[in-house]
Design brief:
Helix content is 21%, strand content 30%. It has 10 helices and 36 strands.
Length: 613
């Protein structure tokens, strides 16, 4: 008899607060879906405890079982600092059990090689396996300034490569390990990761006062939406919505699905993603996919019939699971001649999802104006993680950012010009949010040797600026931003400063040439870059801000349009790269230029900090 079985693991090593809550919430969801769960949590989740539980779990599996393995806790990653042979791994990732120890004599983490071996054993016995890892391996960020003490990274640093390499060698010697494959290379499994290998994944105290992993919280919400709708979509589509929810809280965390991402959640059914069925109605097209599938208002789709493109359609509205579209351009005669069946749509150009704003009930006119924006929309009751909240206080409206910090006020009632200015300032927050989340696709990833340093101008007594989110700048400080290229290839850098109101500025007006072996310091030609408090922003303690450095391999890339684009005219050259097209969407949320631009490799370096007075 086939069954649905789950192994749920929680390790709260080193002060994590959310893993047990995550396992409890995941067990509730899986129980509603008919799973029988085995839990290995906290003091039971030692290295030996996890190994024993995982091996017993594998032994219990049958061919057609539906299998889930879920882990919530710390992860870690180390890389070799010296060359290794072609057959020797240069990077090790690992999970951190409750009794974790790592030193020259002993390492008791659970390596990616062991997970790969166990995953191979599971897929040898069962053909429907999903592994979910709510942890990260980078350990780069120690603190998210926006959330302060209400967020913790799920990555562990300070582990030596040599210790793990010796541990793996011992396992191979005693035949406890076979290097079959990495987990993501197993073609028979679905793998959900909380972040890319070089990013931090976060747990935080949510609006209900409960600590949880932001991936787990978002994943459960999306899966409940799918179950409640009596519809089903592939993992790859579901994870688009999961990523949007995660990035509403932590823009630099990008969850991903690997392996059989075209499978539907906990099912053997597979669907090729990116193509959605469409039905012809009296006046428009009904697309069988909505926000949860990444279909957003304003996106342009190719309308297909029997594999051939017959028209284009623009999305007019998008609900959770359905969207309505109209021919672009509209042609009544062409619409009437469309086939009545076998229609599908394929994405041609996308827009960003509109970020939610909580509007005070006494200002419905703001909701109407907001619905016409390309960046923001009124929040609904079910909308998690609003970008900002508007509260009415007498003759004024107070705007608080996503973290509850008051950032500005406007008089109310307001005339149309003042309303337009309020919408502009809210859209400015939205553009900054998208810029903070800018990241390359794997094929666009730039390999480089650039390091970025922030220093206080003229003050050599202060310790080096910490780039992991734990440091702060004070009004009237003066700083320099240094970029050193220790790699072998020339790169080009754009440096952006994002203040607490979402305003994007350029400390250097154009890109910076960085030949191999060279260094450039911004702010050292005068008296440093001055640190100021944002105009019109009330003082409420510390304000989260950031420096973003975008590195590219092309001197022709122009990102100057990202600088406070409203009301500014920018010259647009022809033949824009995909990076430039994407950043024009950040600036204006509409497509600029041909979608088939040149491939440009890039990387985005994020340095968060708190601003104090």
């Amino acid at each position: 008899m086939t069954q649905k079985k789950a192994l749920l693991i929680a390790s709260s090593y080193n002060g994590l607060s959310g893993p047990s809550n995550d396992v409890r919430n995941m067990a509730l969801l899986l129980g509603e879906l008919g799973f029988i769960s085995t839990q290995c949590c906290e003091h039971q989740a030692t290295r030996d405890g996890i190994r024993a539980a995982w091996n017993r779990f594998i032994e219990s599996l049958s061919l057609h079982d539906t299998v889930v393995v879920y882990y919530s806790g710390h992860g870690g990653m180390v890389e070799s600092t010296s060359p290794v042979s072609r057959d020797t791994p240069w990077r090790h990732q690992f999970l951190v059990p409750f009794d974790f120890v790592s030193n020259a004599h002993h390492f008791n983490g659970i390596t990616d090689r062991e997970i790969s071996y166990w995953l191979k054993r599971m897929t040898d016995k069962a053909d429907n396996v999903t592994i979910i890892l709510d942890c990260c391996f980078a350990g780069r960020m120690a603190r998210d300034p926006s959330h302060g003490d209400n967020a913790k990274p799920r990555g562990l640093s300070m582990v030596r490569f040599e210790d793990i390499a010796a541990h793996v060698s011992i396992l191979e010697t005693v035949r406890e390990l076979r290097l079959d494959a990495f987990p993501e290379e197993n073609p028979s499994a679905v793998r959900i990761a909380a972040a890319s290998p070089t990013e931090s994944a976060w747990e935080y105290c949510n609006s209900n006062g409960e600590w949880c992993g932001v991936l787990t919280e978002s994943l459960i919400l999306v899966l409940r939406d799918i179950v409640g709708s009596n519809r089903t979509i592939p993992w790859r589509s579901a994870m688009i919505r999961v990523s949007e929810l995660v990035q509403a809280e932590f823009p630099q965390q990008h969850p991903r699905v690997e392996g059989r991402g075209n499978r539907h959640p906990f099912s053997r059914r597979e669907t090729i993603t990116g193509e959605f069925p469409a039905d012809k109605n009296a006046t428009d097209l009904l697309i069988q996919g909505g926000r949860v599938s990444g279909i957003h208002q304003g996106s342009l789709y190719k309308l297909m019939h029997s594999g051939n493109q017959i028209a284009e359609a623009r999305v007019m509205t998008s609900d959770a699971f359905q969207a309505r579209a109209s021919l672009e351009p509209w042609d009544q005669t062409q619409f009437q001649l469309l086939p009545s069946s076998h229609l599908t749509v394929v994405l041609r150009e996308n827009t960003f999802h509109k970020l939610p704003i909580v509007v005070h009930p006494s200002t419905p006119e703001l909701e109407n104006v907001m619905r016409t924006s390309r960046f923001i929309q009124p929040a609904t009751r079910r909308t998690p993680g609003p970008l900002a909240t508007l509260s009415r206080q007498g003759q004024s409206i107070t705007v608080s950012n996503h973290f509850g910090i008051r950032i500005f006020e406007v008089s109310w009632p307001a005339n149309p010009t003042q309303v337009a200015d309020l919408i502009r300032r809210l859209e400015q927050l939205g553009r900054a949010h998208h810029l903070l989340g800018l990241r390359p696709e794997p094929y666009e990833q730039l390999r480089h040797g650039v390091t970025v340093e922030v220093n206080w101008f003229g003050n050599t007594n202060r310790p080096p600026f910490r780039k992991d989110g734990t440091d702060y700048l004070t009004v009237n400080d003066r700083i320099t931003i240094g970029l050193r290229n220790s790699g072998s290839e020339q790169v080009y850098a754009w440096v952006f400063a994002i203040n607490g109101l979402g305003r994007v500025s350029l400390p250097r007006a154009s890109s910076i040439d960085l030949p191999a072996g060279r260094e450039e310091v911004i702010g050292n030609r005068g008296r440093g870059l001055p640190i100021t408090w944002p105009t019109d922003c009330p003082y409420n303690g510390a304000l989260p801000e950031a420096i973003i450095v975008v590195l590219t391999n092309s001197r022709f890339v122009d990102l100057g349009h990202l600088k406070d684009p409203v009301g500014t005219k920018h010259h647009r050259r022809g033949g824009l790269s995909k990076l430039e097209q994407w950043t024009w969407k950040i600036a204006e949320n509409r497509t600029i230029g041909d979608e088939t631009g040149d491939d440009v490799c890039f990387e985005s370096i994020y340095i968060p900090y708190l601003l104090r007075r």
